[in-house]
Amino acid sequence: MTPFAAAAVQITGVPLDPARNTAKIELHVRRSAGEGARLIVLPELCDTGYTLRPGLAAVSGPLPGPTSDLLCDLARELDTTIVTAVSVRSPGGGLRNTGLIVTPQGIAATGAKRCLWGAEPEVFTPGVPTEQAIADTPVGRVGVAICYEAGFPEVTRRLALDGAEIIAIPAAFGAARLHAWKLLTRARALENGCHIVAANNFGASGELAFCGHSTIVDPHGARKAVLAAGEGRVEAVLEPAAVLEARTAIPYLRDLHRLAVPQPA
């Protein structure tokens, strides 16, 4: 596969206002694709804004639903792959913070966030332990780690063992934990020999504040691009060959069996 451009979109979501947020999403997706991006990652809860307010259920849709339909239409029209995480209302009425991979052919994979941060368990039903969003796409095999989940090496390691070459991180990472965000985005890339494309929310959004610093990291752990502050996009060219190069140079995955670590089912 030849090198291709990827983009991480950084926005300040408006809590409980899908109309304003999806307008931002469409704007940035179109601009990213217009600049050549074949993979676009959006922040966590990009359509509803990241909030845990009681009104979240009222603005959350089903899956498929209005947000996934919009992303599918954009992916098909612009010939790109889009990754995010959205609040999904299940048939029983509960909410699931759901990772979503969309290609020009439609929804390729979904999987609910398993490791819920702070008060999220009061709002969301966690995914089951074996649940994950991972799929073959036109740009390679992509896996999703949603925000806090990316702090667990086990989550991204399982994605890598299941063939992920790119790990997308849709996030609403808090401003107080910028140090953790900077460290984990590089560490997850290095230890798995994967590209990381991490899209974060930025600034004040209701009662919360997010650290921005959306970033793209290569499989050697080198940061290729970062958007520290403000709304916008960060873009970089991903080299598919760098995955094998990194896994050969530091063969963590090859030698993992020496530790008798349980393999994914």
Task: Give a written overview of the molecule.
This protein has 265 residues and is α/β, with parallel strands linked by helices. The chain has one domain (4-259): Nitrilase/N-carbamoyl-D-aminoacid amidohydrolase (4-Layer Sandwich), CATH 3.60.110. The protein has seven helices and 14 strands. The chain has helices spanning 18-34, 56-59, 66-78, 153-161, 178-192, 241-249, 252-255; strands at 4-10, 37-44, 81-89, 95-103, 106-112, 134-137, 140-144, 166-171, 195-200, 202-205, 208-211, 214-217, 223-227, 232-238. The chain has a six-stranded mixed sheet, covered by helices on one side. The chain has a six-stranded mixed sheet with strand order 6-7-8-9-12-13, with helices on one face. Strand 6 and strand 7 form a beta hairpin. Helix 1 runs parallel beside helix 3. The longest helix is centred in the N-terminal third of the chain and has 17 residues, at 18-34. The chain is globular and about 50 Å long. The model has no long low-confidence stretch (mean pLDDT 96).
Describe the structure using short key phrases:
alpha/beta; Nitrilase/N-carbamoyl-D-aminoacid amidohydrolase; 7 helices; C-N_Hydrolase_sf; six-stranded mixed beta sheet; single chain; Amidohydrolase; about 260 residues
